[in-house]
Amino acid sequence: MSMSNTASPEVTLAAVGLSRRYGNNLAVDDVSIELKRGEIVGLLGPNGAGKTTAMKMITGNLAPSAGSVNVCGIDLIDKPTAAKAKVGYLPEIPPLYKELRVDEYLRLAGRLHRLKQSALSDAVERAKRRTGLSDMGRRLIGSLSKGYQQRVGIAQAIIHDPDVVILDEPTVGLDPNQIREIRSLIRELGNEHSVILSTHILPEVEAICDRVQILHRGKVVFTDAISGLRAFRGGHSLQVSLRRPPETEELSSAIEPARAEKLSEGVFRIISQPNQDVTNQLLRASLDHDWGLYQLLPAQASVEEVFVQLTRQDATGEDGGQAATTNTAPAETVA
Ligand code: ADP
Fold first, then answer.
1. Does the Cβ of 91 fall within 6 Å of ligand 1?
2. pLDDT by residue (tens digit) across 212-232?
3. Are 42 and 205 in contact (CB under 8 A)?
4. CATH for 236-298 (3.30.70, 1.10.287, 2.60.200, 1.20.120)
5. Which of 161, 159, 207 is nearest to 184 (CA)?
6. pTM of the model
7. Spacing, Cα 63 to ligand 1 middle (Å)
């Protein structure tokens, strides 16, 4: 896929053309993901987009219908044991045994990852240190808060010091403090490991990740650095307030191809097309129709609007310099 460049950081994971069919349902459709050392990539998408299915294939827990996965130069299908040794996985539902103590459970996880008996104690201490569990070794997992249980889930994923860490919806079900802690923990992991995390929460991707891949119905519809995602969100949405507002349809037709959504009386969200100067159109229309425009604010598109924007366009507008997986990101978002 991408050109080899000796100066760029080491590629730890290369998943190419992954597809997975369930009966007639193509749950994952030609998805490619490349990950470099020290990079955190977010897989963002609504429920059913194919995130979990993609992650299961990358971790060797599910056979792809097509495509290949290479971890640190090792092919997952040719050498599953060697490749899997380099991957740590936190599934959506963490595989915790609540009746075990943290130390017991992490030793078990280490043995499942084929760590040598002599290396186990050090591995458990290191994983606990990195997840803030150093004082929790004697605690029963079932007695820990949900946030701490999630730390244990992450500790088992890194017990064998893998190069690539895959986290499926790591903050789901946590309270805001726990979410903050887990996010900062993941960022720290990203210093030494490569991390892929899945989420359906857009601010989560912006808070943690270096890069984002947006999945929609099994396909990658957007790949870019987080700065590109921010530009995309901010570039196409405005909030306008009018003293003498027209009907929403009338407003929409005055600013085509942008469209208006009514937020409250006299307040609309304007979702514009890339390259459209909607501000001038709005100002002119307001003067022409005497709508009494008194406020115009940049607005960040919500995750739903981002999906609408991305999935409305055909697979055109490809720009150079992006990962081969980029499909429909408009050229202007390419930083
Ligand atoms: P996400 O993680 O983004 O919510 P999933 O990967 O779980 O998405 O699901 C993608 C699609 O594949 C959905 O349509 C889902 O219904 C389907 N799917 C997932 N697992 C199975 C399965 N074991 N059998 C049949 N269909 C499945």
1. no
2. 999 999 999 989 998 888 877
3. yes
4. 3.30.70
5. 207
6. 0.78
7. 14
